[in-house]
Design a protein that fits this description.
By secondary structure, this protein is an alpha/beta fold. It has 25 helices and 20 strands. Strand 5 and strand 6 form a beta hairpin. Helix 8 crosses helix 9, helix 10 packs antiparallel against helix 12 and helix 11 packs parallel to helix 12. The chain is globular, with a radius of gyration of 32 Å. Bound molecules: adenosine-5'-diphosphate (ADP) and magnesium ion (MG). Adenosine-5'-diphosphate (ADP) binds next to helix 12.
Length: about 675
């Protein structure tokens, strides 16, 4: 038997069990060995019956009597009296009549007065049916090597049809194989980092002897995972450096002209980021850069400047946004920015149909449209570019890796790629998630912006809040009111946009024009609503989180978020970024679901306007899952490590760098190569 053997080779795995494992994606012996416990229960301390307390415990006892009685249809209860030198205890099993047979030798106690076999029993000692009892304990002969009792018991993710005890038993069969697992990490890395061997780590995960060992084992395996991931991105970086892209010389006049024609002055960090990008474009190797900037920091302008620069040697720019609203808004902004330079901006979304779509395709193909803004429609087959030189991916975490690759494929040479995100992520996270990207940061807001005033609001004083909002409307400003649901749900108190819209329009804000926006509207309807709001034809926009990303209406100065406690920090911060986009003072009101004390999360966002700080807090409070998109989370597919392991990430990143820089050849490490190459394929942007 080896790691690639089918499960059927393991003792105790028949067709039925094998089929259940297969359904869970476990095909080989190696897969099963990698199926690590998700938790543990400590049954390693044996308690004397006299010392027993409620809770999980193990006793070492013999059986005095045991009998089974049917209680009702489908339920049989087996009851036993167990004893050791210190006392007696009652044990109860539901629908496990075989316990009678299993514990039978002990019945000789009654008949002979002699001693029956001794067992370990592990289970929960609890008060039920009016007395203390041991419920559903597992039982194993002391003279056998116990698997289900008397140890720290691993608990496995549940697989349909396979109870944890079966999984434990089968893994126990693999013990000899596990203790001979080959090493995967380079010896130098193991030594430098003081890690335990792979076989020891996996053995400990499945058969821990004490709790502290588990942490060491987990660390070793998490390190391995991160090392592989980070090595993959280092290698991708190296490979990217070998690619040939379009070399775009810096044209001082164009950039100077662009900046002069702007109605505002670029911020320092906009200038620095633009310069970093322009320098990248001058190189032969294609750019792979992430532009991180808090909401409202002015990323689109930077992209526009670069598009202008790219066009002077006849290259096209494609800008892909996650929603139609965003795409059309970008297009509008870019038309304003780029038309003075004679550039044509095309908008390609699902709503462009028929002849218009065909014509746009043609113009993209013959190069008369220099800048194309669009949604996923951009990666559809018929779209052919004349000369695609620059690809911008807005809110890039919303796209899967494959979607980005599709777009990059539409060029003779590898286009330069700029990913943009308004979800600031902590440095350590950036390393793993964006390991192969260079990063530019917009860490300041345009001059003259006043920090948004944020206030947590109890639902009880809503009337007063509406009055405050109206003060803004009176002086000509606009407001967003955000609800998390579209339709009312009578089951709970969560506000829905439809009901709020009707309610507000018929009462408090009778005198105001109120728009309604949500994801179920057709995209033409959505953009109509947005356009009307942008044109100040609505005073209030009641909306779901579809306005979350990037929507830009500078005259809106109030955002009221209902059931604010239901949102994540980063999401609240994103929503808040819809206001504070002009010189006017803006306000964000976080209305809680109940009048109970607000959560830590809400208090943090009330205190801070700094997206990077909030991202750190979110990472601490909620873990990394919330912070970046599902697409990538799925792709990385970390089993053991979490992105919150910041120290470990740094260590693994160092080692990956050393590995690549010292010229080590991955292929010499056969155990390592497979997984690393797998990660390389997953994360590559090429
Ligand atoms: P982001 O996409 O980073 O959230 P945008 O690019 O949408 O930000 O810019 C937000 C708003 O700020 C837009 O109305 C834009 O025209 C404006 N803006 C961008 N840069 C500046 C600047 N340097 N000074 C003043 N306003 C700016
Ligand atoms: Mg934006």
């Amino acid at each position: 038997m080896n790691l690639l053997s089918p499960l059927a080779r393991i003792k105790g795995v028949g067709e039925k069990i094998g089929a259940q494992f297969t359904l869970a994606g476990i095909y080989t012996v190696g897969d099963l060995i990698d199926f690590l416990p998700r938790a543990y229960e400590d049954f390693s301390q044996v308690t004397s019956i006299i010392n027993i307390h409620p809770g999980k415990m193990t006793i070492r006892a013999r059986c005095e009597k045991i009998s089974t009685r049917p209680v009702r249809r489908g339920l049989r209860i087996t009851t036993a009296t167990l004893f050791d030198d210190t006392g007696k205890i009652q044990a109860v099993w539901f629908n496990q009549p075989y316990r009678e047979t299993q514990l039978k030798p002990a019945r000789s106690v009654e008949q002979t007065g002699g001693s029956g076999e001794e067992f370990f029993f592990s289970g929960e000692f609890e008060f039920s049916y009016n007395r203390y009892q041991l419920t559903n304990p597992s039982a194993e002969l002391v003279k056998d090597m116990p698997v289900q009792t008397d140890r720290i018991l691993p608990i496995y993710r549940s697989i349909k049809g396979l109870k944890t005890p079966i999984v434990r038993k089968i893994l126990n069969e693999l013990r000899p194989l596990i203790s001979m697992l080959p090493e995967t990490l380079p010896a130098k890395v193991i030594k430098d980092e003081g890690l335990i061997s792979r076989s020891q780590a996996v053995l400990t995960m499945h058969f821990p002897e004490n709790i502290d060992d588990i942490e060491k084992a987990r660390e070793r395996l998490a390190f391995e995972e991160l090392f592989q991931l980070l090595l993959a991105s280092q290698l991708n970086r190296q490979e990217n450096a070998k690619l040939i892209g379009w070399q775009i010389p810096f044209n001082k006049n164009i950039v100077g002209d662009f900046v002069k024609k702007l109605p505002f002055k670029l911020t320092n960090s906009q200038r620095i980021s633009a310069w970093e990008i322009i320098q990248d474009l001058e190189r032969k190797t294609p750019m792979n850069r992430l532009l991180q900037g808090d909401v409202g920091s002015g990323k689109t302008v930077v992209a526009g400047l670069v598009a202008c620069q790219v066009s002077h040697i006849g290259l096209q720019t494609a800008i892909m946004a996650p929603t139609e609203i965003l795409a059309s808004q970008h297009a509008e902004t870019l038309v304003k920015l780029l038309q003075p330079f004679g550039l044509n901006v095309g908008l390609l979304t699902g709503s462009v149909k028929g002849a218009a779509r065909k014509e746009l395709y043609n113009h993209i193909q013959d190069g008369t449209v220099q800048v194309v803004v669009g949604t996923h429609a951009l990666i559809q087959e018929p779209v052919k570019f004349h000369k695609l030189g620059f690809v911008v991916i807005d809110e890039q975490h919303r796209f899967g890796v494959n979607q980005r690759q599709e777009l990059l494929k539409k060029s003779q040479y590898m286009p330069h790629m700029l990913a943009m995100t308004a979800t600031p992520i902590p440095r350590s996270l950036a390393l793993t998630v964006y390991g192969e990207l260079d990063i530019s940061i917009l860490n300041e807001l345009p001059a003259g912006r006043l920090p948004i005033k944020t206030k947590i609001w109890s639902p009880n004083s809503r009337a007063q809040l509406y009055a405050e909002i109206d003060e803004q409307l009176v002086i000509g400003r606009q407001a967003y009111i955000i609800c998390s649901l579209i339709d009312d749900n009578p089951e709970n108190e969560i506000k829905s946009v439809k009901a709020e819209h009707v309610k507000l329009q018929n009462s408090i804000f009778k005198h105001r024009k109120i728009g309604l926006l949500h994801g179920k509207l057709k995209s033409a309807e959505k953009s109509e609503v947005m356009q009307k709001f942008a044109a100040n034809e609505f005073d209030i926009l009641v909306s779901t989180t579809v306005v979350e990303v990037g929507v830009d209406v500078p005259n809106a100065t109030v955002i009221m978020i209902e059931n604010a406690d239901r949102f994540g920090l980063s999401q609240l911060h994103q929503l808040r970024g819809r206001v504070g986009r002009s010189v006017h003072q803006s306000y964000c009101y976080l209305v809680t679901s109940t009048s109970a004390k607000p959560t830590q999360r809400l208090k943090e966002i009330e205190k801070s306007n700094d997206g990077f700080y909030l991202a750190e807090v979110d990472l601490k409070l909620r873990g990394p899952g919330e912070i970046y998109g599902r697409a990538q989370h799925g792709a990385l597919n970390l089993q053991i490590a979490t992105l919150a392991d910041t120290k470990l990430i740094r260590r693994a990143s160092m080692q990956a760098k050393v590995f690549v820089e010292s010229g080590s050849n991955l292929l010499e490490y056969t155990q390592l190569a497979d997984q690393v190459q797998y990660y390389q394929r997953l994360t590559t942007l090429n």
